[in-house]
């Protein structure tokens, strides 16, 4: 068994199984639908029939124990049995080209046996339509949980899906449950004429009324009491052709007819019914369960209602009818309760046989039944044999094994061929068993309809042979008359209407069951969603509480930052450091030009204190400085703390005096003369370059951290500032030296280039500066730290370190 199918079966309702074949027969009697397992062997049952045994044989269930699983719907065990049996793939169709409903109509009309599987290119689930003899049932396994849907809902879902479905042709065989061991037959002395004569004498009484006969027929035969069993007179072969005189011969056809008439109202004979029925036919199937088993046993015996061969007496036909077993008694058709000792040659010389009667043990005299009555009954049964088309239809769909084509033209031809083949096969001797079942059905109905006249004849003959008990005879006559009236008055349309109503009730009950299952699933899904919703609500509440805590913490931090920032936090203009510096220019101004200035200090006529008292540095911005903040700090505070502002202030307030007081006014002449010319300083300022390179004039803009200009805007000093903890590298030095040289070639006013670091200069930077100023570095006879571009053109290169807010010249050494 496929492991996935085993898992699905094990989800069904289950109960222990321990009775072997006996419990299998009990399951068959209750029309069980599901699966049974014993060890590793599995079997599937549908309406009490075994439709497949897998991973073993039926003998594995003899005396074994296991588990029974009741199927939720008849379609599922039939589908699993077909899938395990395996079949032949007949066709593949795309639903947009050939809908499932169209294929279903064709397969149903063609009495197909197999199933449709719609699973390829379908994401929602697997859909199946199962057929047996053209009758269909639907099931589907939907979603990741593979929830089972059945009936019209499953078929409608399949018909609405888009995908590719496969038509599988499967041959299903019904497995019979092995019967119990037959009971030992009572010992009989076939060779003792005296024993035969005694048996014949014991069988000389007449048959009682139908009710008593039916009651006797339901009691099992007791091997220890042979006198209770009816003894059959079996004439010898040579006696069958001899004319006989009036002698008491038991006519068991009358007894059998009465027995069947007595049980006809309760169990109408319907013959062997199909294995698969629609859900609408299940109630009718339960009512006909007994007679279906009778039909199965009838397949193994010869028809009892055929005409006798020429030269045989009616007693021979009586023996054949007597050999037919009933379901209630389970009598072996090969078993006989008496030998030919009861028959003797006739004493007369008449050439015409006298009316022959049969005798069954009772306390009445024999009844003489004429052959004309028996022959009339048999002729009526033969005439009615072809009137009921139910069994012919059953035979046709049971013999159908070919899948019809979806093409209507081919389906029509296939149907014609099938009908022709079925007609031919119905006329062949191989259909004898089915014909015998129809003959027995027709004979039973005929006997039921003629019960009244037969009983009347029996009573008349009984009266002429031997007087019967008046009270008992009256009761028997009344019972037989009532039985005949009931049987004769059966209203077939009324029964059909009753069955239709019962089928409608079954369908409504099935729909109600499906709705209840769906309601249960929806309730479970609702409860699950409610639990998930509750969990999510709890999680949301936790997250909201956490958000509230974070917001409170953020508010506190913002308050702290605002307190630290002060008024800058409310500034309307918020700037980045780069924006603030690019939009700022510093101007060198004096309180009074008549007092000490940089010019008078340059000439040695004023000291530093006097000049610095009169000198001030003013700033001009491209934005509202009073209502501006830089990174949460007031703009003015940011500006005064910046290294750019401190460098400009050092340049105009201290550098002149350091050069003059150290006696380096002459070696640093160009730079020394440029300081008094300073009018303004541009932060993050740009300088326009124009120079020749390879004979071509080049124009570009270059940027320096600070550009000191004169009143005309000509650059006097350019400076790059390194305010990080990292040292100034060789690359930074080379970059400044190259760009300053280009500025000098463009503007002769440039007097110096300065590199300021808040850390230190690495050896590479010092070496680069030394190479650039070679010939003047450490030379007392020439300009110090002078980058000479031509014989008369150059500028001073200075390396300055910033320590604790103060600036010190590292190169040149002053």
Automatic annotation (TrEMBL):
<dbReference type="InterPro" id="IPR055289">
    <property type="entry name" value="OFD1"/>
</dbReference>
<feature type="compositionally biased region" description="Low complexity">
    <location>
        <begin position="414"/>
        <end position="427"/>
    </location>
</feature>
<dbReference type="InterPro" id="IPR055949">
    <property type="entry name" value="DUF7527"/>
</dbReference>
<feature type="compositionally biased region" description="Basic and acidic residues">
    <location>
        <begin position="274"/>
        <end position="312"/>
    </location>
</feature>
<feature type="compositionally biased region" description="Basic and acidic residues">
    <location>
        <begin position="319"/>
        <end position="330"/>
    </location>
</feature>
<feature type="compositionally biased region" description="Basic and acidic residues">
    <location>
        <begin position="244"/>
        <end position="254"/>
    </location>
</feature>
<feature type="compositionally biased region" description="Basic and acidic residues">
    <location>
        <begin position="493"/>
        <end position="507"/>
    </location>
</feature>
<feature type="compositionally biased region" description="Polar residues">
    <location>
        <begin position="444"/>
        <end position="467"/>
    </location>
</feature>
<feature type="region of interest" description="Disordered">
    <location>
        <begin position="176"/>
        <end position="532"/>
    </location>
</feature>
<feature type="compositionally biased region" description="Low complexity">
    <location>
        <begin position="187"/>
        <end position="205"/>
    </location>
</feature>
<protein>
    <submittedName>
        <fullName>Transcriptional regulator</fullName>
    </submittedName>
</protein>
<feature type="compositionally biased region" description="Low complexity">
    <location>
        <begin position="255"/>
        <end position="267"/>
    </location>
</feature>
<feature type="domain" description="DUF7527">
    <location>
        <begin position="575"/>
        <end position="814"/>
    </location>
</feature>
<dbReference type="Pfam" id="PF24371">
    <property type="entry name" value="DUF7527"/>
</dbReference>
<feature type="compositionally biased region" description="Basic and acidic residues">
    <location>
        <begin position="516"/>
        <end position="532"/>
    </location>
</feature>
<feature type="compositionally biased region" description="Acidic residues">
    <location>
        <begin position="372"/>
        <end position="396"/>
    </location>
</feature>
């Amino acid at each position: 068994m496929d492991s996935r199918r085993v898992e699905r079966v094990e989800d069904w309702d289950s109960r222990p199984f321990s009775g072997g074949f006996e419990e299998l027969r009990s399951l068959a009697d209750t029309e069980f639908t599901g699966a049974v397992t014993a060890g590793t062997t599995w079997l599937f049952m549908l309406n009490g029939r075994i439709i497949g045994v897998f991973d073993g044989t039926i003998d594995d269930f003899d005396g074994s124990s296991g588990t029974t699983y009741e199927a939720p719907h008849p379609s599922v065990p039939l589908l699993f049995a077909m899938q395990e049996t395996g079949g032949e793939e007949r066709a593949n169709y795309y639903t947009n080209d050939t809908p499932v409903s169209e294929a279903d109509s064709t397969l149903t009309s063609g009495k197909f046996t197999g199933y449709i599987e719609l699973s390829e290119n379908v994401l929602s689930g697997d859909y199946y339509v199962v057929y047996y003899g053209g009758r269909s049932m639907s099931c589907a396994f939907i979603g990741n949980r593979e929830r089972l849907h059945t009936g019209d809902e499953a078929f409608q879902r399949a018909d609405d899906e888009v995908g590719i479905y496969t038509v599988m042709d499967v041959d299903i065989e019904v497995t019979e449950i092995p019967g119990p061991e037959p009971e030992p037959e009572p010992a009989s002395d076939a060779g003792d004429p005296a024993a035969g004569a005694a048996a014949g004498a014991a069988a000389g009484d007449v048959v009682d009324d139908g009710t008593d006969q039916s009651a006797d027929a339901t009691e099992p035969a007791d091997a220890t009491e042979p006198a209770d069993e009816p003894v059959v007179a079996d004439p010898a072969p040579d006696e069958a052709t001899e004319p006989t005189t009036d002698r008491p011969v038991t006519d068991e056809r009358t007894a059998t007819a009465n027995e069947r008439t007595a049980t006809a109202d309760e169990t109408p004979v319907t013959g062997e019914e199909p294995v698969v029925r629609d859900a609408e036919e299940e109630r009718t199937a339960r009512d006909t369960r007994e007679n279906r088993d009778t039909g199965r046993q009838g397949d193994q015996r010869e028809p009892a209602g055929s005409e006798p061969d020429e030269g045989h007496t009616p007693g021979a036909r009586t023996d054949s009818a007597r050999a037919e077993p009933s379901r209630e008694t389970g009598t072996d058709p090969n078993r006989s309760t008496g030998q030919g000792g009861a028959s003797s040659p006739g004493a007369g010389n008449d050439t015409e046989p006298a009316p022959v009667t049969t005798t069954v043990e009772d306390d009445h005299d024999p009844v003489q039944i004429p052959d004309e009555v028996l022959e009339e009954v048999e002729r009526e049964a033969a005439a009615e044999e072809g009137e009921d088309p139910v069994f012919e239809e059953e035979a046709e769909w049971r013999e159908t094994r070919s899948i019809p084509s979806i093409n209507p033209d081919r389906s029509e031809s296939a149907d014609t061929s099938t009908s022709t083949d079925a007609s031919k096969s119905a006329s062949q001797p191989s259909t004898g068993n089915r014909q015998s079942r129809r003959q027995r059905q027709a004979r039973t109905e005929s006997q039921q309809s003629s019960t009244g006249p037969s009983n009347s004849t029996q009573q008349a003959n009984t009266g002429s042979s031997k007087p019967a008990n008046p009270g008992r005879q009256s009761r028997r006559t009344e019972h037989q008359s009532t039985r005949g009236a009931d049987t004769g008055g059966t209203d077939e349309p009324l029964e059909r209407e009753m069955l239709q109503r019962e089928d409608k009730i079954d369908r409504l009950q099935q729909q109600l069951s499906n709705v209840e299952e769906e309601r249960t699933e929806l309730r479970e899904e609702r409860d699950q969603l409610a639990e998930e919703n509750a969990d999510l609500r709890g999680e949301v509440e936790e997250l909201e509480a956490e958000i509230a805590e974070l917001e409170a913490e953020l508010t506190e931090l913002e308050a702290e930052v605002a307190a630290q920032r002060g008024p800058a936090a409310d500034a309307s203009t918020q700037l980045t450091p780069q924006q603030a510096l690019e939009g700022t220019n510093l101007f060198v101004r004096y309180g009074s030009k008549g007092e000490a200035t940089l010019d008078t200090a340059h000439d040695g006529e004023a000291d530093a204190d006097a000049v610095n008292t009169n000198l001030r540095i003013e700033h001009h911005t491209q934005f509202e400085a009073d209502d501006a903040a830089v990174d949460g700090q007031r703009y003015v505070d940011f500006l005064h703390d910046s290294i750019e502002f401190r460098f400009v202030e050092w340049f105009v307030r201290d550098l002149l005096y350091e050069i003059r007081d150290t006696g380096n006014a002459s070696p640093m002449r160009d730079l020394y003369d440029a300081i008094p010319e300073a009018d303004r300083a541009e932060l993050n300022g740009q300088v326009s370059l124009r120079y020749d390179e390879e004979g071509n004039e080049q124009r570009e803009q270059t940027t320096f951290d600070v550009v000191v200009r004169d009143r005309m805007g000509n650059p006097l000093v350019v400076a790059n500032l390194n305010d990080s903890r990292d040292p100034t590298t060789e690359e930074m030095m080379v970059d400044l030296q190259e760009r300053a040289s280009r500025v000098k070639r463009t503007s002769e006013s440039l007097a110096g280039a300065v590199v300021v670091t808040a850390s230190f200069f690495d050896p590479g930077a010092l070496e680069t500066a030394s190479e650039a100023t070679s010939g003047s570095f450490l030379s007392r006879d020439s300009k110090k730290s002078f980058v000479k571009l031509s014989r008369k053109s150059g500028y001073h290169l200075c390396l300055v370190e910033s320590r604790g807010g103060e600036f010190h010249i590292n190169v040149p050494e002053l």
